[in-house]
């Protein structure tokens, strides 16, 4: 390919009306595809939940970060632009509209989750004397959910509480409830619902659903909470209680609610709890996922690379 052909290709990609719009369609999609391809490798890092959590956060947020980066760049360009033709509208205004719609969509999804959270909290009642006594020992704020099925969760963002169903309180022993509340205390200590809300909001800005990567992220949070709980309780006890809760009530996979026994993660968590030395492929997986993150992260700085290409390569 000659230099003239490269110059014309550069003009088409970086200095044409199309150049300000195609990144909004394809770059978040590329970041999403990278995340989807890395999910199988992330799945193998269950015995190394700290790295698994960190990397799943990066991969789930990247499509949204790419969209937000493009939107900021488009907004800065709009501030100095003169919109006096349809061409200028397409070049400067349409990108801002696309990014604004993405942000608006993420806000609406967040508000819907907040509505579901408020509805759940409205169903709760003050904790029974037995549950309150154990909660005070553990150091958590607990309420009770009048329901027949087993359920326990951390609900809320800035002032989260532990919610346990009446059926679970009535059926479990004090030691079992104590183990469950230790797990939930780990979520509270780590402020998992706050971080999960932020990560999910950014992921929602990317249009493309990052559900598979977010599911790995949720599972890594649960494994980390299990490990912290097991510093003060028996692993086999926690595993047995986890199995009992697995067939209980599930209140959706929301960033505002941490279910004690999400069905998608129970089998992996029980296996890690009962194994003395779980198999680990962490080093190899870190390298593979790390390359994927570096590649996808380059898409976030695309607007700045675009400016450099226009100035230094195309001389315009």
Could you outline the blueprint of secondary structure elements for this entry?
Blueprint lengths: L2 H12 L7 H22 L5 H31 L6 H37 L2 E2 L2 H10 L3 E4 L6 E4 L5 E5 H6 L2 H17 L1 H13 L6 H19 L5 H12 L10 E3 L6 H9 L7 H19 L1 H12 L3
Parallel strand pairs: 2-4
Antiparallel strand pairs: 1-2, 3-4, 3-5
How large is the share of residues in beta strands?
Answer: 5-15%
Say how many strands there are: 5
Broad structural category = mainly alpha
Could you tell me how far the N terminus lies from the C terminus, measured between alpha carbons in angstroms?
22 Å
Give, in spatial order, the strands making up the sheet with the most strands: 1-2-4-3-5
Q: What's the tally of helices?
A: 13
Tell me the overall shape. elongated
Relative helix content: 55-70%
User: What is the arithmetic mean of pLDDT?
Assistant: 80
Uncertain runs: 9-13, 310-316
Topology pattern, helix = H, strand = E: HHHHEHEEEHHHHHEHHH
- Radius of gyration (CA) equals 24 Å
Give a brief rundown of this model.
This protein is mainly alpha-helical and 316 residues long. It has one domain.
């Amino acid at each position: 390919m000659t230099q003239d052909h490269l110059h014309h290709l550069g003009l088409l990609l970086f200095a044409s009306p199309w150049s300000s719009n195609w990144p909004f369609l394809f770059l978040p999609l590329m970041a999403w595809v990278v995340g989807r391809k890395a999910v199988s490798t992330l799945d193998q890092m269950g015995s190394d939940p700290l790295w698994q959590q960190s990397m799943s956060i990066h991969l789930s947020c990247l499509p949204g970060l790419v969209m937000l980066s493009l939107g900021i760049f488009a907004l800065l360009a709009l501030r100095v632009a003169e919109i006096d033709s349809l061409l200028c509208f397409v070049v400067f205004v349409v990108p801002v509209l696309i990014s604004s719609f993405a942000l608006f969509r993420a806000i609406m999804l967040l508000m819907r989750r907040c509505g579901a959270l408020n509805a759940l909290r409205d169903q709760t009642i003050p904790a029974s004397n037995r549950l309150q006594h154990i909660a005070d020992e553990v150091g958590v704020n607990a309420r009770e959910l009048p329901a027949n099925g087993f359920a326990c969760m951390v609900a809320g963002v800035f002032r989260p509480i532990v919610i346990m169903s009446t059926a679970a309180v009535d059926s479990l022993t004090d030691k079992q409830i104590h183990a469950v509340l230790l797990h939930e205390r780990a979520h509270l200590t780590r402020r998992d619902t706050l971080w999960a809300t932020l990560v999910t909001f950014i992921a929602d800005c990317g249009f493309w659903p990052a559900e598979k990567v977010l599911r790995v992220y949720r599972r890594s949070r649960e494994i980390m909470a299990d490990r912290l709980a097991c510093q003060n309780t028996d692993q086999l006890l926690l595993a047995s209680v986890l199995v009992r809760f697995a067939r209980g009530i599930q209140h959706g996979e929301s960033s505002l609610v941490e279910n004690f026994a999400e069905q998608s993660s129970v089998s992996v968590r029980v296996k890690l709890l009962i194994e003395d030395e779980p198999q680990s492929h962490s080093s190899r997986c870190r390298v593979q996922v790390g390359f994927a993150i570096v590649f996808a992260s380059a898409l976030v700085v695309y607007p700045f690379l675009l400016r450099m290409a226009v100035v230094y390569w195309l001389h315009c």
